[in-house]
């Protein structure tokens, strides 16, 4: 997606350990115009798939997922990382190891929001080793829901996430694919996904 790639080139910052900082438009401050365009693109790809729910994980997945859900005309459900006092119903839970925070956390979705009748589109901001996505897939499996595919805003293709997901039979659609973050430079695989 051209405008996303251009924005990463303009405002993305490479941190030493294979991490791309995009806090001025995705992960802290959010650009709603870009997020809406991203949501429209994901919705376009999955338009004919009869998606019933868009599922993401808090926090940075919520913005692109919300626009995708709006465009598809379905609800957005985001997995929560900490249990709220108001979550007193039965929960689906999975363990997720965070690539950036280097801690394992329990993510959960209330059983009432994901069922065997759902055809799910997963959305996340980054794909690195695929652990966040794997956790979301586990939640869907527990609910008996079908996972139609996953939309990723920024894929770091030098990590194992895409392979892990494709080996599970999941369709992966990434809007920017990064080949390398070496020497402080962002190198892309292809400019138009
Ligand atoms: P994975 O679970 O695929 O290893 O990592 C994906 C999650 O880690 C994303 O939800 C994202 O929050 C975070 N993440 C992974 N790599 C990066 C990165 O290079 N930059 C930022 N800002 N977040 C990342």
TrEMBL record:
Pathway: Purine metabolism; XMP biosynthesis via salvage pathway; XMP from xanthine: step 1/1. It catalyses: XMP + diphosphate = xanthine + 5-phospho-alpha-D-ribose 1-diphosphate. 5-phospho-alpha-D-ribose 1-diphosphate binds at residues 128-132. CDD domains: PRTases_typeI (cd06223). One of its GO terms (biological process) is purine ribonucleoside salvage. Keywords: Cytoplasm, Glycosyltransferase, Purine salvage, Transferase. It is found in: Cytoplasm. It holds the Pfam family Pribosyltran. One of its GO terms (molecular function) is xanthine phosphoribosyltransferase activity. Residues 36-156 form the Phosphoribosyltransferase domain. Homodimer. PANTHER family: HYPOXANTHINE/GUANINE PHOSPHORIBOSYLTRANSFERASE, XANTHINE PHOSPHORIBOSYLTRANSFERASE. Belongs to the purine/pyrimidine phosphoribosyltransferase family. Xpt subfamily. This is Xanthine phosphoribosyltransferase. It comes from Enterococcus canintestini.
């Amino acid at each position: 997606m051209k405008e996303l790639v251009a924005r990463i080139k303009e405002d993305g910052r490479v941190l030493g350990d294979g991490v791309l900082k995009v806090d001025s438009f995705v992960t802290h401050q959010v650009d709603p115009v870009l997020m809406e365009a991203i949501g429209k693109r994901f919705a376009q790809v999955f338009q004919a798939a009869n998606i019933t729910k868009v599922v993401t994980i808090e926090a940075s997945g919520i913005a692109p997922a919300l626009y995708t859900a709006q465009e598809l005309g379905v609800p957005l459900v985001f997995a929560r990382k900490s249990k709220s006092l108001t979550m007193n119903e039965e929960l689906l839970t999975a363990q997720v190891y965070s690539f950036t925070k280097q801690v394992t956390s329990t993510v959960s979705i209330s059983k009432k929001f994901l069922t065997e009748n759902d055809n799910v589109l997963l959305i996340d901001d980054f794909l690195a080793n695929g652990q966040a996505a794997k956790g979301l897939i586990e939640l869907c499996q527990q609910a008996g829901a079908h996972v139609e595919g996953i939309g990723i805003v920024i894929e770091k293709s030098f990590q194992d996430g895409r392979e892990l997901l494709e080996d599970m039979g999941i369709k992966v659609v990434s809007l920017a694919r990064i080949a390398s973050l070496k020497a402080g430079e962002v190198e892309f695989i292809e400019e138009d996904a």
